[in-house]
């Protein structure tokens, strides 16, 4: 079984898999006959991190996610559409139901329940799953998850500190060669990926705004966008199944 819930993701006997990143982990499926599909935000993050980790190691990862409402289900999509139409017609947004506050024309820094450490469960999913998938159990990862009024396509601002010098130009070359990654990085108007223009209804993980971070040694900054329903859920599960059948059965 390929499970798309969070139930099995942290079980040591259940592989947590993104085929472009850790396909070898699928070999552990026999322990419980289950493979876990990661969180949508984690999937696109680790696809972009993998080539950098292989080339220069990772010392620290910081990520702020800007997540589409479809990640919260049909009711959330309907609520954004309804509130937007109502407000554009000069009426109030009404009482929110799918979200704690109005989502239309707003940004909500709250996804899932809060944990005792002040982070939300969504933020801690990103931390825990990134460590497991990359097999870096002590990697410092700090996440902030924000819901924004976009229907499909999650976006992420990613700050990376590598163990060894890499640089934005070399990172761009590595990402352009990485499976599943599409680099869109022209330094001018429109030369970057967006959830509407690139991610929605497409399979790739789009990376742009690559630049050196002058505030820290071996620091890089990038912008990562992907369709949260396709690569963030359905496509990744299909890719797991294809890899399982091809290499492990």
Could you describe the 3D structure shown?
By secondary structure, the protein is an alpha/beta fold. It folds into two domains: 2-68 and 107-247, Dihydrodipicolinate Reductase, domain 2; 74-104. The chain is built from six helices and eight strands; from the N terminus they run ββαβααββαβαββα. The protein has helices at residues 40-56, 74-88, 121-134, 168-177, 195-199, 230-247, and strands spanning 2-3, 35-36, 58-67, 141-147, 154-162, 181-183, 205-213, 219-226. The strands form two sheets. It has a six-stranded mixed sheet with strand order 4-3-5-8-7-6. The chain has a two-stranded parallel sheet with strand order 1-2. Helix 5 links the parallel strand 6 (181-183) and strand 7 (205-213). The longest helix is centred in the last third of the chain and has 18 residues, at 230-247. The protein is globular and about 55 Å long. The relative contact order is 0.20. The mean pLDDT is 97.
Q: How are the elements arranged and paired?
A:
Elements: E1 2-3, E2 35-36, H1 40-56, E3 58-67, H2 74-88, H3 121-134, E4 141-147, E5 154-162, H4 168-177, E6 181-183, H5 195-199, E7 205-213, E8 219-226, H6 230-247
Parallel strand pairs: 1-2, 3-4, 6-7
Antiparallel strand pairs: 3-5, 5-8, 7-8
Helix pairs in contact: 1-3, 1-6
Summarize the structure.
The protein is α/β, with parallel strands linked by helices. It is built from 6 helices and 8 strands.
At the first level of CATH, the class of the largest domain is Alpha Beta
Specify the overall morphology. globular
Mean pLDDT: 97
Helix content: 25-40%
| CATH H-level superfamily title of the largest domain | Dihydrodipicolinate Reductase, domain 2
Number of strands: 8
Rg measurement, Å: 18 Å
Q: Pairing-aware structural class of the strands and helices?
A: alpha/beta
Strand order of the largest sheet: 4-3-5-8-7-6
Q: What is CATH's topology name of the largest domain?
A: Dihydrodipicolinate Reductase, domain 2
Largest beta-sheet characterization: 6 strands, mixed
Low-confidence segments, ≥5 residues, pLDDT <50? Answer: none
- What number of domains? 2
Please write the string of helix (H) and strand (E) elements.
Answer: EEHEHHEEHEHEEH
What is the second-level CATH architecture of the largest domain? Answer: 2-Layer Sandwich
Strand-residue proportion: 15-25%
């Amino acid at each position: 079984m390929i499970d798309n819930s969070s139930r099995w993701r942290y079980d040591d006997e259940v592989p947590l898999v993104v085929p472009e990143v850790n396909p070898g982990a699928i070999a552990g499926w026999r322990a419980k006959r289950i493979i876990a599909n990661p969180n949508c935000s984690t999937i696109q993050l680790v696809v972009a991190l993998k080539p950098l980790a292989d080339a220069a190691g990772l010392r620290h990862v910081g990520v702020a996610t800007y997540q589409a409402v479809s990640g919260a289900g049909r009711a959330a999509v309907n609520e954004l559409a309804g509130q937007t139409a109502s407000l554009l017609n000069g009426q109030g947004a009404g009482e929110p139901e799918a979200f704690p506050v109005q989502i239309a024309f707003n940004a909500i820094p709250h996804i899932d329940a809060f944990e005792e450490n002040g982070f939300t469960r969504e933020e801690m999913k990103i931390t825990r799953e990134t460590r497991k998938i990359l097999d870096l159990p002590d990697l410092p990862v700090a996440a902030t998850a924000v819901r924004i009024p976009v229907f499909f396509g999650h976006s992420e601002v990613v700050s990376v500190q590598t163990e060894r010098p890499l640089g934005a130009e070399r990172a761009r070359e590595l990402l352009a060669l990485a499976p599943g990654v599409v680099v869109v990085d022209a330094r001018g108007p429109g030369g970057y990926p967006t959830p509407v223009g690139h991610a929605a209804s497409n399979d790739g993980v789009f990376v742009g705004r690559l630049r050196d971070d002058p505030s820290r040694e071996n620091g890089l900054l990038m912008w990562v966008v992907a369709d949260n329903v396709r690569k963030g859920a359905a496509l990744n599960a299909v890719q797991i199944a294809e890899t399982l059948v091809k290499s492990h059965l």
